[in-house]
Design brief:
four-stranded antiparallel β-sheet, alpha/beta, globular, 11 helices, 12 strands
C-alpha cells in the first residue's frame, strides 16, 4: 500500500512554494520521508477545485491535508477533485465535517464538554428575533453562556460578541448573537451555537492530537504556547474512538473544580500547532502503521 503523503497550502503569491505559515511543517514532513504536494486554498474557496489540485500528481496515492480551515462543502469539493486525479483523502468529507463542526461531535462528547444548543443560520439570512434565541437558551437554563458558530468563537471581542453574563437576559443575548453574526460576515460557519459557560483555570488548556483513536501527541494550546498541562485523557479516549474519525484534536482545559473538560474537538488537518513546533513528531505518527 502506498504510504500517505501530505497536501499543504501553497503561497498565494508564489504558488510553487508552501504558504509561509506551513513551510516549516512541509519541510518537516519531507524530513521524515513523506511525499508532499501543494494545493491552492484560494482557488478552493473561489469554487475552482480542479485548479486548486492542479499541482498534485495524478495517481500519486492517499493524502492527509494540512493547511488552512475551509468550509465542509469546499472540503468535499477537494475530495472530489482529488478523486478525479486518482488520489484520495485519508479523512473523507463526512469525517471532516463530523470533527470540524460542533453538531458533528457534540453528542459523542456531551458528558465531557459544556452543554450546548444550536440553530442553523446561513450567511446573509435574516437574523431571527430575540424570542428565538431566548427559546434556544431556555434549554440550557439560567446562568452565563458563550456564543459561537459551528467552528469558531470571537474571544477577542469577549464582552461584545462572545460572553453573555446571563442567558435569561433576552436583550443582552440577542445583542451578543447579533454582533457575533455581524462580525463573522461571510465566515459564519453553519449557524449559531449557545454554550453554557464553565470557568476554567487560566493557562490550563492543552491540545491533544489523536490518530486512529490513540494519543499521538499532547502539545500546548497555540494560545498559551509556553504552558503544557497534563490532562486526564481516559474518558476522552473512549469518546474519540466512538467518534470514529482518524485524525482529530481535543482541546482540554481544567475547570475550576478540578475536572478536565473538552473545550473543543477539531479535525487534526486544520488544527494549529504551538509556535516553534514544526510537527515532525506528529508527521512520524501519521506515517506509522496506523497512518496507512
Amino acid at each position: 500500500m502506498t504510504a500517505p503523503g501530505f497536501l499543504f497550502c501553497c503561497d498565494p503569491l508564489r504558488p510553487t512554494r508552501p504558504d509561509p505559515l506551513f513551510a516549516g511543517e512541509e519541510a518537516a514532513a519531507r524530513r521524515v520521508g513523506a511525499r508532499t504536494a501543494l494545493v491552492d486554498h484560494d482557488a478552493l474557496l473561489a469554487g475552482d477545485p480542479e485548479a486548486a489540485v492542479g499541482r498534485v500528481r495524478r495517481d500519486s496515492g492517499p493524502y492527509w491535508y494540512r493547511g488552512w480551515m475551509m468550509p465542509a462543502a469546499r472540503y468535499a469539493d477537494l475530495e472530489r477533485a482529488l478523486a478525479a486525479r486518482g488520489c484520495a483523502l485519508l479523512t473523507d468529507a463526512a469525517a471532516y465535517r463530523t470533527a470540524h463542526e460542533l453538531p458533528g461531535w457534540y453528542e459523542t462528547f456531551a458528558g465531557l464538554t459544556p452543554r450546548s444548543v444550536w440553530r442553523a443560520l446561513s450567511v446573509g439570512e435574516v437574523l431571527p428575533g430575540p424570542a428565538v434565541w431566548s427559546g434556544l437558551a431556555g434549554t440550557l437554563g439560567p446562568g452565563p453562556g458563550i456564543v459561537k458558530d459551528f467552528v469558531k468563537s470571537r474571544k477577542e471581542e469577549w464582552h461584545e460578541a462572545c460572553f453573555v453574563p446571563e442567558l435569561e437576559d433576552a436583550d443582552r443575548l440577542a445583542s451578543v448573537v447579533g454582533r457575533f453574526v455581524e462580525l463573522q460576515e461571510e465566515f459564519l460557519a453553519g449557524g449559531v451555537v449557545l454554550r453554557a459557560y464553565e470557568p476554567f483555570v487560566p493557562g490550563s488548556e492543552a491540545r491533544v492530537w489523536w490518530v486512529d483513536g490513540e494519543v499521538a501527541r499532547v502539545t500546548a494550546h497555540p494560545d498559551t504556547p509556553g504552558r503544557l498541562p497534563a490532562p486526564d485523557l481516559d474518558s476522552v479516549g473512549e469518546a474519540v474512538r466512538a467518534l470514529g474519525c482518524r485524525w482529530v484534536t481535543t482541546d482540554m482545559a481544567l475547570r475550576e473544580d478540578g475536572t478536565w473538560r473538552v473545550v473543543e474537538v477539531g479535525d487534526g488537518q486544520v488544527s494549529g500547532l504551538p509556535a516553534g513546533d514544526d510537527g515532525e513528531a506528529l508527521f512520524r505518527a501519521l506515517l506509522g502503521p496506523s497512518g496507512l
